[in-house]
Amino acid sequence: MRSRLPLFTLAVLLTTAPYLYADNRTLIEQTGSDNSASAEQTGVLNEAVIRQNGSGNDASVAQFTESNLATVVQVGSGNDVAVYQGPESYFATASVYQQGTGNRAEVDQSWYANDLKLSSVGDGNFISATQQGFAQAEAYQIGNDNSVTLTQDGVYHGTQLAVYQVGDNNLANIDQGDAGQLQLAQNGNRNSAQIMQNTLFGEVVFQQLGDDNRLALEQSGRGNGFRGSSVGNGNDVELVQLFDGNQASVVQTGDGNLADIRQLAEYNEARISQVGTANAAAITQSAASMHAVIQQSGSGNQATIVQQ
User: Fold this and answer.
1) H or E segment and range at residue 183
2) Phi, psi (deg, nearest 5) at residue 158
3) pLDDT digits (tens, 9 = 90+) for 162-189
4) What does the longest C-alpha to C-alpha distance in the chain come to?
5) Which of 10, 19, 182, 266 is spaced 20 to 30 Å from 174 by Cα?
6) Where along the chain do its domains lie?
């Protein structure tokens, strides 16, 4: 619990509770068979909208405190959504759309002013979103058996992310701290991204296009940035940025390339460009204000830079 209401304010809310609850609104519309929907509301000025068209769909919304909005739309069969805007959730917005069969979404919002838009079109997709204050997120999936898990905490400066997945069996796990900016796009099959962005005013923009590509990223410190893309199949990118003011980029075109950047001091710059097949490049910077560039074209090339 981040804070407590003043006792006087709490007493007023309890005294006027019967009138406040009347300001909550719920709309449920269902077409089809064996659909289930539930909404639980306390507090004031909460709104829940649930629309389901198909069979065997399940939607639940729980709203507490003040001015939360949840919208759920499901088309198809066997889809499941649960939205929880908890006792410490104020002015949160969650919009979830699922179309297809066997899709599942879980939303947990707390603290102030979270905003969330989720969409899955296909079969067997999964999204789990946890927002802990001043967070904005979009996650869109088209295809089958894709998965997104995201956690955001933007309690002081706010935080933003967008994830787009098109294809089958793609995976994105994201843990984002305060003041982060992140955009991730995966187009193809069996691509994966594991991102831990716990840096103030950090930025990540990355695209994976093809099959079986992998991104593993860790950011901490302040003002770190990373951009790039992998176009092809079976490419691998690993990045670690610690301390402050580091900048890095990786651009891969081809198959089976490996890029590894580790920035272990402040204000470094590292860039890797790979065109071809089965190239490997690694840059390690453990002193401040270093600059390193690796460019590879062809197949089976290996390069290593260590700056310390």
Assistant:
1) strand 181-189
2) 85, 160
3) 999 999 999 999 999 999 999 999 999 9
4) 74
5) 266
6) 7-307
